[in-house]
Amino acid sequence: MAKEKDLKRLMENKSGSVKAFSEDIGLAYTTVRSILERGIFNAKVENVIKICKGLNIKPEEIMEIDTPKVETMPVKKIPVVSQISAGLPIYSEENLIDYIYFATDKIDSNKEEFALRVSGDSMDKIFQDGDVVVVEKDSIVENGQLGVVMVNGYNATVKRIRYNGDQVILIPESNNPNHYPQVYSAKDEVKIVGRVVASQRLF
Q1: Which long-range contacts (CB under 8 A, 24 or more apart) does 161-166 make?
Q2: What does the record list as coiled-coil region(s) (predicted)?
Q3: Which position among 22, 50, 122, 139 bears the catalytic label?
């Protein structure tokens, strides 16, 4: 985390403290602190740009702060969508909310992926509200794997999926006891949108 330590030093030199620097550039202190703790490369691009402007440095200069040259890893640009529903195409303009870049060694670069922002607490043992999950579109979800499922045309949901004969069981993994497994039979329209292969937290 040497890069983040140097950024912290620059912020303190500029404004006296990280909190004061955060106020100067119009970012929440908790956001800037999270970026310094978790790494600049996990931050949103627009937040990195604000920090760079505040420090009067170019974004590419962050790459050069006391960091040895390393071979870069290929990444894949993945669209983040707000929801998946029967009436709205996944990649429609009004449904796209962001893009993330994911290292190709973490996913199958030959597959089609999209990302979905998690909403609610039904899976908060694994994902927090606002986390982004990477979904391998139209992939088979095997028993016990995490998948994105649409039931009877309603907005898609992220759940652990189990099969019992002709039943599909969607299992929440939540700290909230009000969430129960949902059991669907052959008479229900259950569409497996894709398999969850990774996740990312944005700040």
Answers
A1: 161/192
A2: none
A3: 122
